[in-house]
Amino acid sequence: MYLASRQAWINETKNGTPRGVPLNCDAVAVLEREVGKHPRYSFTYRGQPIGGQVSNTAWQNAVAEAGIKDLRFHDLRHTWASWHRQAGTSCDELKDLGGWKSRQMVDRYAKFATENMAVAAARIESGRGGNVVNLVTLMSRVAARFRLTSLRVAD
After folding, report:
1. 1 neighbors 31 (Cβ within 8 angstroms)
2. I need a surface site. Which of 14, 21, 23, 42 has the fewest CB within 10 A?
3. Over 70: is that where the pLDDT of 41 sits?
4. Residue 2 DSSP class
5. Phi, psi for residue 12 in degrees, rounded to 5
6. What are the phi and psi torsion angles at 44 (to 5°)?
């Protein structure tokens, strides 16, 4: 862990490669609260480092104690990715942050909330002051000019 550089280091990822992970201010604050509790590791259980297998009895007990049903540790990765996507992090940035090799994996993990889709849809509303052509007006003018009774728009 390199708190000064705001980076965590993972010696071996799921695909077998090492990588650095940038940490935001919130993550650094959590880690700083753990400094000094163990001489080497940030997160331990009964003095031993928590290994790669986090979906154990301790995790399940903590989830139950919090009153949460059906939460796997891996669900946190989906939530993290979805929050990033909803906050406007680009697919390419999220791919690199999450360590995924393809944008298809980003799409599998990161979902938009309905509210974000409404915001996206509103970006091209008429009267928003942007350089957006009013499609309804344009199509009616095209139809009138060419005396079209119906106009089919390709998918």
Report:
1. yes
2. 14
3. yes
4. B
5. -145, 115
6. -135, 165
